[in-house]
Amino acid sequence: MNKKWPALLLFLLVISLGYPFGNAASAAAAGSELTYVTSFGADASLSGEKVSKQIYFSIPDYWKVQKTTVKLDYRVSQILENQRSSVTLSVNGTSFYSFRPAAGEGEQQLNVQVPSNLLKEDSNVLEVTGYLREETQNDVCTTEPSPDQWLNIYGTSSVAVTHTNKEMTAEIREFNKRFTAIDNASGGRSAVAVPEGADPAELEAASYALSGYAGGSDLGSGALPLIPYTSDQLQGKFLVLLVSTYEHLPADIKAKIGSSQLSNSAVIQLIHPDHQPTLVVTSANKELLVKAGRMAANLSLMSQLDTDKIVVDADTAVDTPPVDINRIVPLTDSGDQLTGSGHQEQTYYISMPANRSIAGAGKVSVSFRYAENLDFERSLMTVLVNGKPIGSKKLSEELAGGDKAVFPIPSNIDVAGNFSLTVAFDLELENAYCSGSGGQMPWAFITKDSALQLSSKDRTEMLFNNYPYPFLRDGSFNHVAVVLPEKADAATYSTIGNLFSLLGKYAEGNNGGIEFFNDNADKNQLKNSNLIVIGTYRDNKLIQLYNKNLYFKFNDEGTAIASNEKIRITETYGKRIGVIQLVPSPWNDANGMMVLTGASSAYYELASRLAANEANKYKLYGDGVLTDKDGNVQAFRFKKEAGGSDESLVKDILQRSDVVGFMAAVVTVACLVIVSLILLIRKHSRRQKNRQRSRQQTRSKRRGGK
Q1: What is the pLDDT of residues 161-190, one digit of tens each?
Q2: Which of 199, 404, 420, 643 is the most exposed place for a label (fewest CB within 10 A)?
Q3: Which residues does UniProt call coiled coil (predicted)?
Q4: Residue 554 · residue 562 · CB < 8 Å
Q5: Residue 150, CB half-sphere, CA atoms under 13 Å: how many?
Q6: Phi then psi for 283, rounded to 5 degrees?
Q7: What integer best gives the mean pLDDT of the chain?
């Protein structure tokens, strides 16, 4: 037994002294078997005679699928009749498995494999359809769903895809595809890295790149991490985007990059494609490094690069197109068909910058046709925005071959940022109350000329309800200045990654400005910017200087968050909470200052997680939020309510350039009319006076003649 110990120790020594990225290498290597699990996420309680639940799962094109397993955790009503009830699973519209659920047996589980020929690259949809019949129910269908016919599908249900990865090619576009794919991005295996102790230019370039990749990634409930480029931080990362000035690159990477003309250009180059693919963005010129970071954020450009290296110079075009805020949005490229009696829906998802809300000038135009065998007294179509109806139209036999409905979007609808638009049909057959109507299956078709005329307006109140305003405006970075603590650690980088992951999800391109500053930056450098201030009382001079302006202030010693008018905080609790708050800039009330702070970097990093992804953003409202490691989050509003409706109306008018222009023209015309009237009156008055003088002179002459 003792003879085995030297060999074992030698093996462990080889492992420990081997390539520092060995964990990532073995897991990411082509041929290694991996399993990616897509969870159903939330419990679903379905009731009625016919019920269904859909879940989408992805299969990137570089996966070689070995098997796909559906795990269904479910429970059915105790009064269902086993021999007349069934559940069917289908993938991409094709059924592959049916079974009869056992009523009255509590929670049950089904494990079944999906036939490989039903799967496709990219997005797939699994549908669970249940036909639920009661023991005493006759064969006549009912028109109303019964609450005692139910199927519960638990969130622990999942789709697991076991696969190997194809060998990665040495192309930037291939790196792009894998870096943003669901298995790497949402699993925390993709990361953006900067040198330890990164300078402001490196962080600026990295923030552009991180935002762009975050916007194009499926991050789920996570964030794209920003890490220092050290061996311990790189462990477990499959793909790395390294942003660094040339002088700060490790020696082995410098050797691969070379040094020709990097003072007049920047390089984006893929290295180590066989074990830990790393896309290096570097330059000896800091301005060109930032430009290369902007190019990395332009995923449309990056996805076209079939080489392992590209050079960026002063003449390279890297900017994304400007965002068109008010525009015509086609609903469908080729048309959408809905089939089946009863209620049918087609939902479209519309993107809009988060700081904007729908204005009343918008409208929806839907062109459609439908079957002629409907009961036209009971059939209609309805359009909904975020689930709220904005208009309905009754279907008619005369217009079945080509119908159209136009609905204005109500001015009082409260929709901001991305939203859904649903076109719903109620397709009822004459004298038929069951869904199974043989060859009389009704249908409706939404044609490709259906469109949304989108008009929007700014939401500019300085509250987290409107976040990411003021740091994004109309999809572009809005003069963002990040003020760092005296010394940045791993938690500081994680905080930056959290913030720019969510900002990247909302950014519509790589436009606008981001700058990084040390805490000794002066007023002139910061006064025209929207500030993000990161640090503690002791390591960020700006927090110390403007502590009196904060809603959550530090105590006199600067060791803990103190009580305020909204909440009583003990000194011990004040040392173990993180705070994120949004206050006006100390130099310009029109700009904002978001402060992430706590007694240590671990706590402001904790606070930054509230602004890291959509899953947590709902907790961020008001203008001051605190959180602790137990998961408790408390949000408060300190800013007083805005002025009355008249003030809001004036703001809305001033934000509409077309209305302001029209009003200016009206005022100008009115002024010209008034001036003209004054001149006419004066002219008329002079004539009157002249006439009076003439009459007086005539009278005087007559009197003199007499």
Answers
A1: 999 999 999 999 999 999 999 999 988 899
A2: 643
A3: none
A4: yes
A5: 13
A6: -170, 155
A7: 86
